[in-house]
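From: lab user (bench 3)
To: helpdesk
Subject: output format question, protein + arabino-flavin-adenine dinucleotide

Hello, I'm new to running complex predictions and I'm not sure whether the block I got back is the full result or only part of it. Here's what I submitted:
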Amino acid sequence: MKTHVAIIGGGPSGLLLSQLLHIRGISSIILERQSKAHVLSRIRAGVLEQGLIGLLREAGVCDRLEAEGFRHDGTVLTFDEQSFRVDFKDFIDQPVVVYGQTEITRDLYAAREAAGGRFEFNVEDVVIDPHGPSVSYAVGGETRVIECDFVAGCDGFHGVSRKTIPQDKRQEFEKVYPFGWLGILSETPPVHEELIYANSERGFALCSMRNNALSRYYIQCDANDDAARWSDDAFWAELKKRLPAKFADALVTGPSIEKSIAPLRSFVCEPMQYGKLFLCGDAAHIVPPTGAKGLNTAASDVHYLYQGLRAFYQRGDMSELDAYSSKALARVWKAERFSWWFTSLMHRFPDQAAFDIKMQKAELEFLRSSPAAQAAMAVNYVGLPY
Ligand code: FAS
Ligand code: PHB
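Helpdesk reply: Thanks, we reran it on our side. This is the complete output you should expect:
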């Protein structure tokens, strides 16, 4: 088979890139290791930056998002019994929108299928030749080869793309956090109209939502905890202990319809390109979900790669593709810093000394009382410019 761009991975990065390329007449094929149903069963991100929304609009995949997404102009932070709100509009007129990643993936699959997009699901043994370039893979016991001009590695943290860059040509930066997030989805009304990020002596908690009848909650848990060990009642009881009474008393509980634990790590691979292979999204970097930057930073990668491919196919100009890695990494590292900062501020660490806890509380008090501190948080949370 031949195509302009072979895309490894049918998650949000691969799908968004494929749809954007399509509207510019640039062909692609998406190779996905799982089934489409499996991809759509994942419950992940929930908060979208305007940059991602702009890309979805350009891709013609924004109708449901605009109809069902929730505009949020601020967020609430709590520590012990105190709570305060950071109003983004006080500093930057740019809201975030709450709309599940699962729905974005669903919308993108629908758009790609309507446009006759080419997919291969349940692929195995993907091997990338970044210099040909070409991609070989097996599906249904048959080996196939795709000849292409470029390969987009959109296959997430556990994919093959990053490992295609020879070890002596790449440098990896990693920080593994000594805790995870136990998350549940429940068909209950959200406890508050905006997100609540809670720092408590028992650990971090987050109150989020997908819509007015579907809530998403997280509590910090041991890194090697097991979701099956947590009954719904135990989860709700622990969440209430981590929230100020006014929110704990307002919490509407109910049966979980999804319960899982996500590990937390910060990770970056440099460079994000090798030969004609370009890494996008989780294939190149991971952030702890505290700052809601995972999906949103995958989107800025897609933006830079899409612009580079457009320049090549429309003007024969390779300069933007040559600069892809340095451009993408400049924004990736700022998202890594914000995610690390917010995670360090809001979580309890096993080895934390009393002084460290005092530092967290002093920083939260500074954030509560200083417009300058809130401005810095707001501009990072709503999303730095591309
Ligand atoms: P993805 O991992 O979404 O997609 C990669 C795709 O490649 C997958 O479909 C995979 O099956 C496929 N693939 C892998 N190897 C392959 C191979 N060899 N061949 C072919 N296909 C292959 N971000 C937030 O902002 N907020 C959150 O709350 C949040 N929660 C998360 C919870 C979990 C458990 C995880 C893992 C991530 C979470 N994230 C969150 C981050 C997440 O949203 C990612 O940033 C986002 O999915 C990135 O999208 P992709 O880069 O497309 O990677
Ligand atoms: C979510 O709704 O899943 C969510 C929201 C904000 C975060 C992380 C996860 O920072």
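A quick orientation on your result: The CA atoms of residues 335 and 379 lie 11 Å apart. Let us know if anything else is unclear.
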